[in-house]
Amino acid sequence: MDLGLTGKSVFITAGANGIGREIALRFREEGASVAICDIDETAIAELGALDPEIRTSLCDVSDSRKLADCINQAAEAQGGLDCLVNNAGIAGPTARLEDIDDDSWQHTITVCLSSQFYASRAAIPHLKRSTGGSIINLSSAAGRFGFAMRSPYSAAKWGVIGLTKTLAIELGEEGIRVNAILPGFVAGDRQRRVMEAKSQQRGISFEAIEAEAFSYSSVKDYVTATHIADQCLFLASERGRMISGQALAIDGDTKMLA
Q1: In the chain, ranges of CATH 3.40.50.720 domains
Q2: What are the residues facing 137 on neighbouring strands?
């Protein structure tokens, strides 16, 4: 299916690894011009070697000025900006709230939520000059359910929904659509580390933690980066032009998080 993304300009935060990398590569397959930033120099080099046409920048998304510079430079180099994908995020601590220190709380909120504010603020002037501009924010199933021993992460991801809904209202008259994607349990090392930490905290096996997680979902399997990238492509395309202000779950019909 041709989604009409050829020539579109896209910026993706944390775009050199995992979900972000898959989103970047899928946009490139559709003919889009792609720029990414990431904090991982090795991953940036690997992505650059894989596709030299992807513009890459080393950036810690918690640095609002550096992030704005990366977005402005990418928009200038690519002749504008049509889509921002706010993908950057970290797992944060796995512990009961009373055992979480200030720095761990603040760092999780900054990377998972404040960075989306920083990036959107920088991108909006460019998106206003686009025809059919779009912002896609990565939230999580933790953004609509409580998530035991993951309070900073869950709080940040709930905040992403509020930011998304508000931006959709503010930017609708400009023709800019804003949506959030809420993945469930995503296959990969980060999800495994979170489950292993919960296993240690609760004193039960990894297999028991995994089985419990899937017991609350109708489709008992992991979400993949490709599932998420496919949704991003549709939302950024003309086919998704009437979708805005939505929190779109990709979670196999998850009912709750333990």
Answers
A1: 9-184+224-248
A2: 86, 180
Fold of 9-184+224-248: Rossmann fold (3.40.50)
Q: Are 5 and 35 in contact (CB under 8 A)?
A: no
Is the pTM of the predicted complex or chain greater than 0.85? yes
CA distance 110 to 120: 14
Q: Are 31 and 6 in contact (CB under 8 A)?
A: yes
Tens-place pLDDT, residues 16-60: 999 999 999 999 999 999 999 999 999 999 999 999 999 999 999
Best CA proximity match to 195, nearest among 148, 158, 256: 148
| CA 212 vs CA 14, 186, 216, 223, 256: distances in Å | 30, 15, 7, 16, 11
How confident is the model over 149-184, as pLDDT tens digits?
Answer: 999 999 999 999 999 999 999 999 999 999 999 998
Cα angle vertex 12, ends 185, 187, to 5°?
20
Would you say how long the chain is, in residues?
258
Rg (CA), the chain: 18
Average pLDDT, whole number, for the chain? Answer: 94
- Catalytic residue positions? 153
Residue type, 90: I
**Residues 171 and 125: beta-carbon distance below 8 Å:** no
